[in-house]
């Protein structure tokens, strides 16, 4: 469920950029997501997180609330969604590596071989799909890769101590002192021309990508572990490319079914391998 929600992020961001500037889109989506999360926390009377969890929540906020949305949105101003999917192709392997370093887990060689093979398939396919050339947005994309992997790793660790929805909920709320002024400043300096696509895109990246998707994602990570869960995300770039065809009119090559089959095999191996 989390991967499906995330796979719509890039197409929805492209739609959102039709009506909002990049800084406005990122700041407003975070404020809207925080409003949803804060409402849930208040309604259920959830106590404040322990002080020992604040550093981890700060990493989640910096990675998945602020860093990844901002860097990918800036990249999508000049990059296609197909090319941006290269980031997600590397994200599962990077998340597994950071998780191993952070938590001390030692997945088997079979796991690493399948994870590397899956990343290689996705990267080769998405680079070929985007014409085989690197864009000027790659610095943003690789930065987004690193901060998001850190946020996933820390969030997956915290989700073992508190429900996954509270992890992203508190991270969003804790970012409000930054996102509210940023939204006001961005909206006053960037042109806003709301269109149907722009509003739908904004609402999805706020409610779907920024909150609901991460709720189920962190819950899944807590249930099966960060390394194994991260490899399910190998399917995300291929799903994103499907959405880019259906929603944005981009075109896929005949290699898509072959790439999809290879990725599914790699995912199956990682799920059965010892972690």
UniProtKB/TrEMBL annotation:
SUPFAM superfamilies listed in its UniProt record: Multidrug resistance efflux transporter EmrE (SSF103481)
TM helices/strands, residue ranges: 26-44, 56-76, 82-101, 110-127, 167-187, 199-220, 255-273
InterPro entries (alphabetical): AA-Vitamin_Transporters (IPR050638), EamA_dom (IPR000620), EmrE-like (IPR037185)
Coarse class of the protein's main subcellular location: membrane
Location within or outside the cell: Membrane
GO CC annotations, alphabetized: membrane
A UniProt-annotated Pfam family: EamA
Keywords annotated in UniProt: Membrane, Transmembrane, Transmembrane helix
EamA domain mapped to chain residues: 2-122, 138-269
Coiled-coil features, chain-numbered ranges: none
Membrane topology: Multi-pass membrane protein
Family that this chain belongs to: Belongs to the EamA transporter family.
Name of the protein described by the UniProt record: DMT family transporter
Protein species of origin: Streptomyces apricus
Lineage of the species this protein comes from: Bacteria, Bacillati, Actinomycetota, Actinomycetes, Kitasatosporales
